[in-house]
């Protein structure tokens, strides 16, 4: 325990470190007016798309403009329809900490060519991500801070020590830079990009966390936005802790939905003939993993990782078969059998073994404060368990932010009339529907397009809903929002061909 105590003491000391003060009257002109060198991109996919790339210089700390700077990687595909050019269209694919340099890869198959050709399509890696100054790995013993606290107090104590260790490993090598990898600073970077491009306003497509970034931008830079589309939405008033807690009920509903589907296919998966039987089997599997981690390719899937696998695969009802095969495999392995391990489970295990999502946590922790008392999280977990037996311990688990220095700025309060189109599925488990309702209320001029009775994260997809696609494309084309909120449905599933 002495090692764990040392970690907690070290992190506590770092959390009391002071922050830089703003430079009064500092001039941003040298950043907004910089000349950048547009050159051939290093990525073959961007070259094929006809993109050019550049690096835009921004201050690390916007309160200290003469201090250190960093480079933001930007891509540009110039508008092909010069006569009807609408302006610039930026995007963010979510995460946080997902690379957004290839914007065409995100939106090229959902925005009609006739519409997209009117925009300069601008991609960028947010600060701290990929080619925009990604910090070195912290050396985490696990890949992802989104984990379950487990089934009992002993599991929660182990998670608390682990999450403290994760925070400390990031802050001991550099206690300063990670604190500036925030959404507010990324929004400022976006506005520098806008200035460098010579655009009076930006249009924008944000997915998941990217909706929060877009909403923050509208609040920080009023009058500088044009056509803003938000897909699978974060409520700024719930970010980050509240949104995480909102996962619990949404994930339990998603698990019930999947369990019902799986029970209908019991002849294939043999996981239970009724939804309650399937659910009971999953809960029992988690209890087994708590006692004895399930060996998968030399890696132990335990009570902390298994709920994350469920959370990941419940994001899309089209993954029902994948999740059923994954649970079937885990049940067989837990029972001592040697089944063929499906590739999706191997991918989950490989990610848990090799990836590190520390930059994602740096952004969360720098954006909004989270409770520092571990007992707060344990009480929240126990209060939610009766109605969330599988996901209470994931949605309320402690994370590195509990051991992080206080944010340098308060969270952005979003409350404005910037026009926006909000797209949201009712069954989304990553950004639950209540989040979209919250943002809709905070953006008084927005319209909410609901994809009804669909469990999916990211609704602007080819072939999913013509209603959603048509509405988004009309807005990007004409700049006219629907007169009122709209309910859309998924396209009918094509009927099986009738045998001749």
Automatic annotation (TrEMBL):
It comes from the Bacteria. Residues 394-488 form the Peptidase S33 tripeptidyl aminopeptidase-like C-terminal domain. Residues 1-22 form the signal peptide. Pfam families: Abhydrolase_1 (PF00561), Abhydrolase_4 (PF08386). PANTHER family: 2-SUCCINYL-6-HYDROXY-2,4-CYCLOHEXADIENE-1-CARBOXYLATE SYNTHASE (PTHR43248), TRIPEPTIDYL AMINOPEPTIDASE (PTHR43248:SF29). Belongs to the peptidase S33 family. This is Alpha/beta fold hydrolase. It comes from Nocardia panacis. The lineage of its organism: Bacteria, Bacillati, Actinomycetota, Actinomycetes, Mycobacteriales.
């Amino acid at each position: 325990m002495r090692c764990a105590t040392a970690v907690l003491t070290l992190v506590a000391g770092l959390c009391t470190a002071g922050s830089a003060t703003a430079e009064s009257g500092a001039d941003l002109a040298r950043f907004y007016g910089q000349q950048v060198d547009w050159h051939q991109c290093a990525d073959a996919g961007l070259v094929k798309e006809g993109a050019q790339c550049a690096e835009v210089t921004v201050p690390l700390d916007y309160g200290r403009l003469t201090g250190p700077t960093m480079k933001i990687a930007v891509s540009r595909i110039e508008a092909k329809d010069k006569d009807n050019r609408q302006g610039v269209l930026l995007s963010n694919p979510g995460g946080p900490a997902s690379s957004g340099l290839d914007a065409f890869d995100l939106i090229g198959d959902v925005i009609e060519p006739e519409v997209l050709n009117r925009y300069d399509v601008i991609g960028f890696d947010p600060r701290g991500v990929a080619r925009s100054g990604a910090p070195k790995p912290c050396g985490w013993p696990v890949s992802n801070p989104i984990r379950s606290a487990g089934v009992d107090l002993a599991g929660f104590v182990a998670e608390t020590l682990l999450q403290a260790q994760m925070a400390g490993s990031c802050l001991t090598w550099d206690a300063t830079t990670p604190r500036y990898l925030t959404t507010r600073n990324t929004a400022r970077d976006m506005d520098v990009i806008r200035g460098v491009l010579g655009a009076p306003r930006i249009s924008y497509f944000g997915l998941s966390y990217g909706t929060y970034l877009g909403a923050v931008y509208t609040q920080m830079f009023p009058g500088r936005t044009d056509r803003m589309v938000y897909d699978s939405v974060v409520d700024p008033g719930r970010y980050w802790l509240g949104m995480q807690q909102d996962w619990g009920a949404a994930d339990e509903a998603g698990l019930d939905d999947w369990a019902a589907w799986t029970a209908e296919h019991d002849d294939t998966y043999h996981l239970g003939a009724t939804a309650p039987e399937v659910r009971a089997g999953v809960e029992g599997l988690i209890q087994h993993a708590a006692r004895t981690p399930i060996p998968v390719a030399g890696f132990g899937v335990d009570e902390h990782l298994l709920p994350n696998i469920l959370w990941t695969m419940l994001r899309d009802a089209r993954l029902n078969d994948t999740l059923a095969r994954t649970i079937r495999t885990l049940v067989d392995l837990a029972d001592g059998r040697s089944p063929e391990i499906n590739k999706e489970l191997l991918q989950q295990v490989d990610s848990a073994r090799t990836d590190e999502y520390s930059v994602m946590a740096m952004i969360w922790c720098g954006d909004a404060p989270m409770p520092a008392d571990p007992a707060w999280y344990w009480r929240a977990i126990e209060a939610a368990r009766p109605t969330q037996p599988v996901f209470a311990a994931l949605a309320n688990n402690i994370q590195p932010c509990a051991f992080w220095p206080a944010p340098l700025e308060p969270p952005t309060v979003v409350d404005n009339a910037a026009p926006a189109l909000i797209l949201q599925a009712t069954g989304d488990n990553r950004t639950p529907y209540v989040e979209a309702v919250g943002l809709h209320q905070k953006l008084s001029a927005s319209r909410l397009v609901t994809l009804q009775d669909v469990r999916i994260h990211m609704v602007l997809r080819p072939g999913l809903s013509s209603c959603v696609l048509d509405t988004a494309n009309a807005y990007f084309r004409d700049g006219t929002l629907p007169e009122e909120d709209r309910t859309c449905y998924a396209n009918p599933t094509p009927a099986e061909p009738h045998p001749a």
